[in-house]
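User: I'm curious whether this sequence folds into something compact or stays loose and floppy. Could you predict its structure so I can see for myself?
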Amino acid sequence: MNFDKGSSSSATHTKSCYRDICILIVDFDPICLRVASGMLRVLTYEVLTAHRAMEALEMIRDKDLGIDMVLIELHMPDMSGFDLLNEIKRKSDLPVLVMSFDRSENVMLISLEKGAYFYFTKPLYMEDMSDIWQYVHTRRHQQQRQRLEAEKKEAAAL
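Assistant: Here's the prediction. I'll summarize afterward.
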């Protein structure tokens, strides 16, 4: 479990929309985990990593970590990626992106039907990662709109 939220000082992109986004990457393969986290840090995202599904769920429960999005490997040794996706969706409203070497259209469709926002096939490329901030932006916008609607209803009830 890596709780280091530091971002790379050698960032080549400095888009402000990335700076306040924290992504949890879940992958049992240390090389894939290092490559994915390195790409995201170069893009100036904050990155947390977990090698096991249960670690990831524990980290998601810790609201102080400020996780905005989760990128999960579909094939994990301690829990099916589909089960992990279900658990994350059940316990949070975090956007979940799936990654796998599995290029089966059926697997991709199942992932999306179970609530994944996007399915990446490995190997990952920098251009794959550069626009994922949009999922967090959309979620934050929806949350803000819901808060405003709740405030309007509350004010109208007074």
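Summary: The first strand starts at residue 22 and ends at 26. The two ends are 47 Å apart (CA to CA).
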